[in-house]
Design a protein that fits this description.
Length: 890
């Protein structure tokens, strides 16, 4: 059972990590992946390993007292059958249905039991056939299938009557676990008609209690019970608990295709696309073979196609989603969920007129069904198509006014769009119907928190903040934000040349919990600032409990996020993930940092660049710790290469094509006149040349230490060998850096004049390496030679330009510029320090002192006023404030 437990932990962990991505409609930018329309090839995503069978089930199957027929029936029930067990049409059809095979000839056998024929018809999208098959049968299974069929026909009132009868029949079937599972599923559907806690509905906790009793007291080996529990938990957005229930289901029967399907849906929701693809392959495998064979190739199955369609929708790939679902529609033209996915995929292709046409045609199958509008609206919300998402989610809610989920998704979508009143109204109505939905609960609490916030405005921004000490930061943000506006929307290099129609809202959150809840609907997120389009939320740059990163350069971060706001506005929120991140990094106007460059250097040396499809996934689901960082760095360089080779307007022309729905390959060929493959070859050559020129990638004439060791035939070098290499190649950056390290005591890092000369050479041959600048800055600061201050400043400026969290370089620069009486520069640097760490009283003291020495009492007043809020118990600050105000008045 060790393997089963390991898989359980892995599956549940995936959804815990994915909660921040799947909740709230959008934290990740749109992504692009290739179309998948052909049968899954042998080299494609491999199926997931089937979980080991639960020990108690295995022990039951091994009991000697079982007759052969009993053992065979148990093997079928728990997905352990052999070909010999499938001895007639009924057992073959039961097994085929369990594993999601809709092509088995056994399914059309007229001798099958009525409930089995009805379930087959439901799976095939033939609800009237199902109803006819079970006419007069009032068993729980038949009643549930009849209700589902009535829903598929749009006969919602009739379905409600059927569901109400079944939902209240728990006491009649208290010792039948199968029946209780069907009753629980009926209760889920009834809650959509009457409200989860509405009159005549069986409440959420009651359903959970009933299922718990069915599991613990009636039949703990019944897989249908945890499957029903998983469906209920999924309905409440409790992903981690739903994953646990699904894992339990699969340990009781590893071949339950429905359980794999729900797990695949959740994986797509959580942006775990690799897992979703593997689950789709698992469904293909199960549907293809009676006995699973993970090494074979499989034709796409109906359930596998739907998982891949949901995945394509989550990746903002409407055309690929359509290509994936159409073969299923050709085979089963009346399959309701497939038809709903067609509506969503068409809308995701931004052909909204066609989507509305398909929505109308769906009404011919199921009049006034909320399903297609809900599926399409939810997908569009994830793609940040807020206006169209809201329209469709409202349609879904109007068609099923007691179903909470469309209202909750509408509220979360409006929250991301910055429409707080609309979000509050939708979430409150949703919670009135279902008070147990986790995302809705968290977001409603957040809205109450936001109600207490204060706002201040400038020409292009609204800042929303919690009253109190955060007002210091809020008021200091307005002027830098307007400078950011001019840069990002302007026509400078990389400027977007577009102005959003409305003011952008900046929301300052006093701790990480509130920020994460704002962005995701769940209080767990591993970042500290994010744009959802018209709203940018950020955690304040403060140290202490409840804060994730402490101080950071908020102006640079906001410049990055505001680029997202502007590009999403210009492109109608339609552009590849790598492209929007690349434009944001480019417009940070910051130099490459050494960590990113070293990651790119390793990619160049190993020829492990991310292609256009892989790079998008790496932002959201990296496989290695460095993958996300490489995606950012590589994407930014790809964007830079476009601008340098094709000009500033090329990226804008690409944006406009993306806005019109043109996909990336076609856009590249129309604007850049090259294919993506041709561009990629050009980019990798350009990138390698640049990295070689900066001494970060070895060449034939400047080999790395590892290469030199290989040539010398040794594994580790001795000092004598390093000395020899240095004498032979004094300007080889790899040798020189290692030689300098060997000459410096790591405890003191004392630099002699001779070592300083070598450090200057290293700074020239490896111009992006901060190490020589750090050591030379300390050396020059300790020197009394003429010009040492100016030389120290040059090195400090290099370091400060690349620093995002520490104020040390900015503070030292302010002191050095003050020593030279260069007050404008001293003020600029101390202002940068207060920008990175606005809540640090020591820095504010220094900033006020610099301002006064520079003859700027107005600026000093600002910092002293901040001190009165940061340290209100220190009377000296108020005294200083009064004194400086007198200076201003006089």
């Amino acid at each position: 059972m060790k393997f089963a437990r390991r898989l359980r932990v892995e599956v549940v962990a995936s959804f815990v990590l994915g909660l921040a991505l799947c909740a709230g409609g959008a934290t990740a930018q749109p992504m692009v992946t290739p179309e998948v329309t052909q049968p899954v090839p042998a080299q494609g995503p491999r199926p997931m390993p089937l979980p080991a069978l639960d020990e108690s089930v295995q022990q039951l199957l091994d009991q000697d007292y079982l007759k052969d027929a009993e053992r065979a029936a148990l093997r079928i029930r728990h997905g352990q059958w052999t070909n010999e067990d499938l001895s007639d049409a009924s057992t073959r059809a039961t097994a085929a249905l369990l594993r999601g095979d809709t092509s088995s000839s056994a399914l059309s056998d007229a001798s099958l039991p009525a409930t089995l024929r009805a379930e087959i018809a439901v799976r095939m999208g033939q609800p009237q056939v199902a109803i006819d098959a079970i006419a007069g049968d009032n068993s729980p299974r038949a009643s549930r299938l009849r209700a589902e069929s009535l829903i598929d026909l749009g006969r919602l009132a009739d379905a409600e009557v059927e569901l109400a009868t079944l939902a209240n029949a728990g006491s009649q079937h208290a010792e039948d676990a199968d029946a209780l599972a069907d009753i629980a599923r009926a209760q889920i559907l009834l809650a959509r008609r009457r409200g989860a806690e509405g009159e005549g509905t069986i409440g959420y906790q009651q359903t959970l209690d009933m299922l718990a009793r069915a599991r613990d007291a009636v039949d703990r080996m019944n897989w249908r019970v945890p499957l029903a529990e998983a469906l209920l938990l999924y309905e409440k957005d409790d992903y981690a608990a739903a994953a646990e229930a699904l894992q339990t289901t699969l340990e009781l029967n590893p071949r339950v295709a429905e359980a794999w399907y729900v797990l695949g849906r959740m994986s797509a929701d959580a942006f775990d696309f690799d897992r979703a693809e593997r689950i789709a392959a698992t469904l293909d495998m199960l549907a293809t073979n009676d006995v699973p064979d993970e090494s074979a190739a499989f034709a796409p199955s109906p359930l596998g196609r739907m998982i891949r369609t949901y995945t394509r929708l989550r990746q903002i790939e409407g055309a690929a989603a359509l290509s994936e679902i159409r073969p299923l529609l050709d085979a089963m033209p009346t399959h309701r969920e497939a038809r709903a996915l067609e509506v969503a995929a068409t809308a995701m292709s931004f052909d909204f007129a066609k989507a509305d046409e398909l929505l109308a045609k769906y009404d011919e199958l199921a009049p006034a069904s909320p399903l297609p509008a809900f599926v399409a609206g939810k997908a569009l919300s994830s793609a940040r198509q807020y206006e169209d998402a809201a329209r469709l989610l409202r349609i879904a809610s109007e068609r099923s006014p007691k179903w909470a989920e469309p209202l909750i998704d509408l509220g979360l979508s409006e929250l991301q769009a910055g429409k707080l009143d609309a979000a509050r109204d939708a979430l409150n109505r949703g919670l009135a119907l279902d008070r147990f939905n986790t995302r809705a609960q968290n977001s409603a609490v957040l809205l109450k928190e936001i109600e207490s916030y204060t706002t201040i405005e400038s020409e292009h921004f609204v800042i929303r903040y919690k009253p109190g000490v955060d007002e210091i930061l809020a008021r200091e943000m307005l002027e830098p934000l307007e400078r950011i506006f001019v840069r990002v929307t302007g026509d400078g290099s990389g400027g977007i040349r577009h102005k959003p129609a409305e003011k952008t809202v900046i929301e300052l959150y006093p701790n990480h919990r509130w920020f994460a809840t704002r962005i995701t609907g769940m209080p767990a997120l591993h970042t500290f600032a994010a744009a959802t389009g018209p709203v940018i939320a950020m955690e304040v740059p403060r140290s202490g409990p409840g804060h994730m990163v402490g101080p950071y350069d908020w102006a640079r971060v906001l410049q990055h996020e505001y680029v997202h706001t502007v590009t999403l506005s210009r492109t109608k929120n339609r552009l590849p993930h790598w492209f929007t991140e690349a434009s944001a990094v480019y417009l940070e106007d910051a130099p490459d940092d050494i960590n990113s460059l070293q990651i790119l250097a390793r990619a160049a040396q190993a020829e492990r660049w991310f292609d256009f499809d892989t790079i998008n996934v790496m932002f959201v689901r990296p496989k290695k710790p460095t993958d996300r960082a490489q995606a950012y760095a590589q994407g930014a360089w790809m964007y830079r290469h476009i601008i340098e080779r094709f000009g500033d307007t090329s990226v804008l022309e690409l944006m406009d094509l993306y806005a019109s729905g043109v996909r990336e390959e076609e856009a590249f060929q129309r604007v850049l006149k090259v294919s993506r493959a041709e561009f990629f070859e050009s980019f990798t050559n350009w990138a390698r040349e640049r990295l070689e020129g900066w001494g970060l990638v070895p060449t034939d004439s400047k080999k790395s230490i590892e290469q030199l060791l290989g040539e010398a035939g040794v594994e580790e070098f001795k000092k004598e060998l390093l000395d020899q290499w240095y004498q032979e190649q004094p300007e080889n950056p790899f040798v020189l850096a290692e030689y300098i390290k060997s000459e410096i005591d790591p405890r003191t890092e004392l630099v002699t004049p001779e070592i300083a000369d070598r450090l200057r050479t290293l700074a020239r041959v490896s111009p992006m390496d901060p190490m020589p600048h750090r050591l030379l800055a300390r050396f020059e600061l300790s020197s009394s030679e003429t010009g040492s201050t100016e030389r120290a400043i040059a090195h400090l400026e290099f370091l400060d330009a690349r620093e995002q969290h520490s104020t040390s370089f900015a503070m030292e620069l302010s002191r050095q510029y003050a020593k030279l009486a260069q007050w404008d520069k001293a003020i600029a640097k101390v202002t940068r320090a207060t920008q990175i760490s606005p809540y640090d009283a020591t820095i504010r003291e220094h900033a006020a002192t610099i301002a006064l020495r520079a003859g700027n009492p107005t600026l000093a007043e600002r910092h002293i006023l901040a001190l009165t809020k940061l340290e209100p118990d220190k009377a000296i600050h108020q005294q200083r404030l009064e004194a400086v105000r007198k200076m201003i008045k006089n």
